[in-house]
């Protein structure tokens, strides 16, 4: 079993060494640019890990791992246009550095490049891998559309929210692990269990992210506390609070969601106060635990030696408790 | 050999019967909408024709033909955003009817759907088909980027222009025919020759389009004469004229390219006058003939019975002379 740090270094090197044609400049430069911004590159490393887990040759998983990284960055490039985001990983976004047309078209070209990299798998598993990849891509598009539609709605249900984060972020983690497993020679059953592990872990991770935004240690978390509150982002916490709040608490939430001029500290304190009174943190942690349990349950069913299972369990534990 | 009209009816029915998931509404409704706008649907019919040409089962080519139609409409959806086009086939464009974000994301989802349809080919030809499809998609993205970059330039060379139309429009025709041929059981050599036939025919067709804009019979052509001239579009004619013009003609072109307020009839007449003095129509027709000859030359080398070759020759003849 290779260590994740080693796999991470392999895949980071491969991303850094990627080159694209010089012409047309405005099609390919933005691709190199967004890939150079770094990011954690956790997903491609996990694809190698999944392959290694079943005794596969990780060299054969590098191009598919690049496919996942290129695909993920394609979705970021298009998401940034839609969100009118000025910055990505602290650097100017493609649609700001060039323009929206360049970002649309370079994103399209990235998706084709991602497909080409994924096609490098052996013939024997080509269809299985591409089917997972295409289903994953559909899920990510659906999740992004649902997320955008939430901005116009104040009656989002918890189940709708959970479905959205499953599609928007968790299926990519699940799909990444499943593709790695298939390349590594896993049985269909084990590949599907690893998918389930990844999807449930991804949902738990996103719920943790929602909790950390309000209750995280800002130094460990690395983000401004209450960023989601300030932007009225429909997180698990806000949706649950809107569901449970009555009387003064409901009025207070309505007020802070609609007021356009405010003192940031005051808004974060007031909304957090509502959350505290409604015990929202506990609800969110329970939900997170439910998905974590489902992930570990899937993991327990995979046909793996105990040390490999332990390795994955530890990876998941680290992911889920690191930032409080 | 099935008639093109019959194949066209088959594929049009298949397009009309396409359904997509109901949810998320704003992801899938725009896909159904743009596909319902019609268009000639010539490309998917040609994919069936190419399959039939080599004795293949056209039923097996229907889903790949849908892939081509969905892919083509994905590029139109994104191109319309980039061009800020209000109308497509006389109907309101997706980014105007919904908004640009919806058009970006629905376009992305369409590309995934196109890939899924193309994946329906048999395992034995899956990689060959997908490789052609991906190369085609890359070409179309490159062509669109080069076309956009031309808007900012006044020194475009004829060879750059020919390369642009090859990528932006001709490789899709070539790729469509090649995929149909592979499905139909053609040898690699014959599939490649049919690709060459399609690409060269596509370039000839685009050059004809450039000529018809200025010299076509408006009743047969179905478009306003001089539309390209009015929008300063860099066509073969304009690029060649800019290359050849001296003295008064050069000044006149510069004037009409830069003036923002003008009488349309006057501008079309003046620019056409320059074209006439420089014999631009002949240059363009010679170029068109060169590509038509290359197409027929490729056709002559394909291992086909004489009646099938004649059928394709007639198809190409019809495409290239219909609208004067």
UniProtKB/TrEMBL annotation, chains A, B:
A GO BP entry: isoprenoid biosynthetic process
Any one Pfam family match given in the protein's UniProt record, by short name: polyprenyl_synt
Keywords attached to this entry: Magnesium, Metal-binding, Transferase
Co-factor(s): Mg(2+)
GO MF annotation list: metal ion binding; prenyltransferase activity
Family the UniProt entry places it in: Belongs to the FPP/GGPP synthase family.
Protein name: Polyprenyl synthetase family protein
Gene source species: Mucilaginibacter ginsenosidivorax
């Amino acid at each position: 079993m290779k260590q994740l740090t080693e796999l991470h270094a392999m895949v980071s090197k491969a991303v850094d060494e990627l080159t694209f044609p010089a012409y047309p400049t405005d099609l390919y430069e933005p691709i190199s640019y967004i890939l150079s911004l770094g990011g954690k590159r956790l997903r491609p490393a996990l694809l190698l890990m999944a392959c290694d887990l079943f005794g596969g040759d990780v060299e054969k998983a590098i191009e598919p791992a690049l496919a996942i990284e290129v695909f993920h960055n394609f979705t970021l490039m298009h998401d940034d246009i839609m969100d009118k985001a000025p910055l990505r990983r602290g650097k100017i976004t493609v649609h700001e550095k060039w323009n929206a047309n360049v970002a649309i078209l370079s994103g399209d070209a990235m998706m084709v490049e991602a497909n080409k990299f994924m096609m490098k798998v052996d013939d024997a598993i080509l269809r299985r891998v591409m089917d997972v990849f295409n289903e994953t891509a559909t899920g990510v598009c659906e999740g992004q559309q649902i997320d955008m539609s939430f901005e116009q709605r104040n009656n989002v249900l918890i189940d709708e929210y959970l479905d959205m984060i499953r599609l928007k972020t968790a299926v990519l983690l699940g799909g990444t692990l499943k593709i790695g497993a298939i390349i590594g020679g896993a049985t269909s059953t084990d590949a599907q269990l690893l998918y389930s592990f990844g999807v449930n872990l991804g949902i738990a991770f996103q719920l943790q992210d929602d909790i950390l935004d309000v209750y995280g240690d800002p130094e460990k978390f690395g983000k401004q506390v209450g960023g989601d509150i300030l932007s009225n982002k429909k997180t698990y916490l806000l949706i649950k609070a809107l569901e449970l709040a009555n009387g003064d608490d409901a009025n207070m939430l309505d007020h802070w969601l609609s007021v356009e001029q405010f003192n940031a500290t005051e808004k974060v304190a007031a909304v957090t106060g509502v959350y505290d009174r409604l015990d929202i943190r506990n609800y969110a942690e329970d939900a997170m635990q439910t998905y974590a349990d489902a992930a570990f349950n899937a993991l327990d069913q995979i046909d793996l030696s105990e040390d490999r299972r332990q390795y994955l369990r530890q990876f998941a534990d680290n992911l889920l408790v690191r930032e409080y």
